[in-house]
Design brief:
The complex is a heterodimer of chains A (about 325) and B (about 325).
Chain A: E1 20-21, H1 25-32, H2 37-46, H3 53-59, E2 66-67, H4 87-97, H5 105-108, E3 110-113, H6 124-149, H7 167-231, H8 274-294, H9 308-314, H10 322-327
Antiparallel strand pairs in A: 1-2
Chain B: H1 8-13, H2 45-52, E1 59-63, H3 69-81, E2 85-87, H4 97-108, E3 112-119, E4 123-130, E5 136-145, E6 163-167, H5 174-187, E7 202-209, E8 212-221, E9 239-242, E10 246-257, E11 260-266, H6 273-285, H7 287-304
Classes of the chains: A mainly alpha (about 325), B alpha+beta (about 325).
Chain lengths: ~325, ~325
């Protein structure tokens, strides 16, 4: 019915039919615009037989209404005047059906928990928290009672019996939980990888700058030395060789960093294999595609694609293969 | 049928009580502990009746035809939660619903019933009734989540007796008290029921928020690092995991009889879902008419308040 609801759903993705407060202005405007009053009055006439509900409703200034997504639950702001409340009858019936007072608590197992504060219905988290605390307190109180009576309370871990949910179902639950955990971890890893890549890029940039600077410096020094030599007329022997750092004994050492995928004896600088690798992948993908299309009986027939199992797998599809998947019937 | 013992003493004491004390031999009889006439208990059984009190509650769970898949699963979940229930076939709706259902309940030998009625494939109404002449309540059920949802991860023994927790506002008013009593009797598993399991590992929560009864079912889970004895310090580490179905009940009416009879209570705030939908549609119905009216109004307004001639209107004209 188009009522804004989904945003409140924090706990359950599946459309939980919660109530949200709707703006009162719509009804207000509808009720009070003078030009529409005739329209409304005809409404009223039609609805007269319904317990004055509509009458009450259209008079409302501040109709507090709560709506759900498809099953709306509008509450009347003023109680309908024809509501029956037979208190004596209720009490009488209560006595009728009630168990005698001195029945053992063990038969009833009911606990009354005090609610400290009012819980707003529309606040999902607070409401569920209130229920949770109520259950927790109840369990604690019951546990104390059972302790005092000396009766077993909790289930021992080695007690095997039929459970309300089958093992297969619990497997699915476990699978879903694991999948969620894996998703979180993967996103964490991806984020970290992104960060690391950024940092590595910065470091690389720094290094390149350093190298360029070094190179420039060395060239400058050589030029200076040459100028010096020129000026002093090439008459010096080997005495005033500039201190270019050749003698440190560090010149002809290759960089000890190994490049991955490059054998030590490789003289091409590690760039020999790159082009071949790229075309290999493409050929393989092409081959696979053709195999699935024409190989061993050709294109597969129209089989069910959306089953319970594949819906779980779809989310793990590699995004880059999306175009290929459309053509390939598995 | 069991024996009925008349004693003048007890007649004065509890004139209207049904028979809760079993006869002297505490063996199992077929008599439901509720019966039409007032059945008296033994003279000296008053202090002893707790010993002989047997909860022989049986609940019949049925639904109407044309029920939705979600509500059918909810019903099946409830059937698995209540070991003292009997599931029956679908009931043809409408005609003489009350009489048919009462007969069915008598036939199966049950003392209460949970009847799920689905209207228009959309709205679920739940009836809670005590069979012979007890009160019955009609609820509108909202916010249904069944046990099959993968986000409800808990699990517990099938048939173990639940702990029922009620929020304190069940004591505030007479109709809530009546509802609480009915809930205890229907949702509480009898103590030595044949299909009940020992240990208490789940807890039901019934709480009244905003004049609705909210139901939750939690599994009590305690980390088991000690032996199979009761955990001592583990009480603080006890956590609850949600298991079971979730739903929210909106009481509509309470009747004095089973599936009918004089109305004892009517919810003054209840608006039926049909009316809500009708309101919605009506709100949208006048959209076109309103638009046309707005246009004519605008035109009248423009005619009655003509604008001054614009100095710059001719500026760009060729």
């Amino acid at each position: 019915m188009g009522m804004a609801d989904g945003s409140k759903d924090r706990i359950f993705a599946e459309g939980e039919k919660e109530r949200t407060k709707r703006e009162a202005t719509d009804f207000h405007a509808m009720g009070l615009r003078s030009k529409d009053l005739s329209f409304l009055q005809s409404e009223k006439a039609v609805e007269d037989n319904v317990d004055d509900v509509m009458g009450d409703y259209s008079e409302e200034e501040d109709s507090e209404s709560e709506s759900e997504s498809d099953q709306e639950d509008v509450k009347l702001a003023e109680p309908s005047k024809t509501a029956v409340y037979n208190r004596e009858g209720l009490v009488e019936k209560l006595e009728d059906i009630g168990w005698p007072e001195n029945v053992d608590w063990m038969h009833k197992l009911s606990l009354d928990i005090d609610q400290e504060k009012e819980v707003d219905v529309n606040d999902d988290l607070a409401r569920e928290l209130a229920f949770y605390t109520q259950a927790l307190e109840g369990t604690r109180a019951a546990f104390d009672k059972f302790q005092s009576m000396g009766l077993p309370f909790l289930r021992p871990p080695d007690y095997y019996a039929e459970m309300v949910k089958t093992d297969a179902h619990m497997q699915k639950v476990k699978g879903k939980l694991l999948a969620q955990k894996r998703q979180i971890e993967e996103s964490e890893e991806r984020r970290k990888a992104r960060e690391a890549k950024r940092i590595a890029k910065e470091v690389q940039a720094e290094k390149l700058k350093e190298r360029a600077k070094q190179k420039k410096q060395e060239i400058e020094e050589v030029k200076k030395w040459r100028k010096q030599r020129q000026q002093s007329g090439f008459k010096d022997g080997k005495d005033s060789m500039p201190d270019l750092g050749f003698e440190d004994g560090k010149t002809f050492q290759r960089s000890s960093k190994k490049r991955p995928g490059v054998s030590p004896g490789d003289r091409s600088g590690g760039k020999a294999k790159q082009g071949g690798g790229k075309s290999n992948n493409k050929n393989k993908k092409n081959r696979e595609f053709r195999n699935s299309k024409f190989g061993f009986g050709g294109r597969k027939g129209m089989k069910k694609q959306n089953t319970a199992e594949t819906t779980n797998d779809v989310l793990a599809f590699n995004k880059s293969n999306a175009a290929g998947n459309k053509k390939r019937k598995r | 049928m069991g024996k009925k013992r008349k004693h003048s003493e007890t007649q004065a004491v509890e004139p209207k009580k049904k028979d809760e004390g079993a006869p002297e031999r505490p063996k199992r009889t077929l008599m439901g502990w509720k019966d039409k006439e007032e059945v008296q208990t033994q003279t000296d059984s008053n202090p002893e009746s707790p010993q002989f009190f047997r909860n022989k509650e049986k609940v019949m769970v049925t639904c109407s035809r044309r029920i939705n898949y979600r509500y059918r699963h909810l019903m099946l979940n409830l059937v698995s939660l209540l070991p003292h229930c009997k599931k029956d076939n679908k009931v043809e709706s409408r005609s003489s619903k009350g009489a048919t259902l009462n007969e069915l309940i008598e036939l199966r030998g049950c003392s209460s019933a949970l009847f799920f009625e689905c209207r228009k494939h959309q709205d679920l109404y739940m009836w809670m009734a005590r069979c012979p002449n007890g009160p019955s309540v009609k609820f509108l059920v909202n916010a249904v989540h069944t046990m099959e949802e993968l986000k409800l991860t808990g699990n517990h023994l099938k048939g173990s007796r639940p702990l029922l927790t009620f929020s304190s506002n069940f004591e505030k008013d007479a109709h809530w008290k009546l509802l609480k009593e009915m809930i205890i009797q229907i949702f509480g598993t009898p103590k030595e029921h044949r299909k009940s399991k020992p240990y208490h590992d789940h807890v039901f929560v019934f709480s009244i928020v905003d004049d609705h009864i909210w139901f939750r079912n939690y599994q009590i889970s305690v980390p088991h690092n000690e032996s199979d004895k009761m955990v001592r310090g583990g009480l603080d580490k006890m956590t609850l995991v949600e298991v079971g179905p979730r739903f929210c009940l909106n009481p509509i009416k309470i009747f004095a009889g089973s599936f009918g009879g004089p109305t004892l209570y009517e919810n003054p705030f209840y608006v039926s879902p049909n009316q809500i939908r009708a309101l919605e549609k009506r709100k949208k119905a006048g959209k076109y008419a309103k638009k046309v009216k707005a246009k004519t109004r605008r035109k009248m307004h423009e005619q009655s308040n003509p604008l001054e001639p614009d100095e710059f209107a001719d500026m760009w004209r060729e």
